[in-house]
Design brief:
alpha+beta, 2 strands, single chain, GMP Synthetase, Chain A, domain 3
């Protein structure tokens, strides 16, 4: 699907769904580019996007990751923050900002 129409208030359900999928994919790709899949014991990415009554877009990204005990010195908080940033960058790119 191409770039959505402007303004955000005109986004269709399908475009909102696509936006969420791209944000989730970006978070997963970020994590998997930094940690081998076999070292991840649990990975959950949840993206919630909704339009406000004012026509603005609210996007919440929740990333939870649990790594193998062999990765105990790895900075998981930094990994999660980077994944969230990657998600928001994907949202901005999708919206054409």
């Amino acid at each position: 699907m191409g770039k959505p129409k402007s303004p955000v208030s005109s986004l269709s359900y399908e475009e909102m769904e696509e936006l969420g999928e791209r944000a989730e994919e970006a978070a997963r790709a970020y994590i998997l580019s930094r940690v081998p899949r076999r070292k991840i014991t649990d990975l959950t990415v949840a993206v919630d996007a909704e339009k406000t009554e004012e026509g603005e877009l609210n996007v919440n990204v929740d990333v939870e990751v649990r790594l193998s005990s062999t990765m105990r010195n790895f900075d998981v908080e930094e990994l999660v923050n980077g994944a969230v940033e990657a998600s928001f960058k994907a949202v901005e790119e999708y919206l054409g900002n």
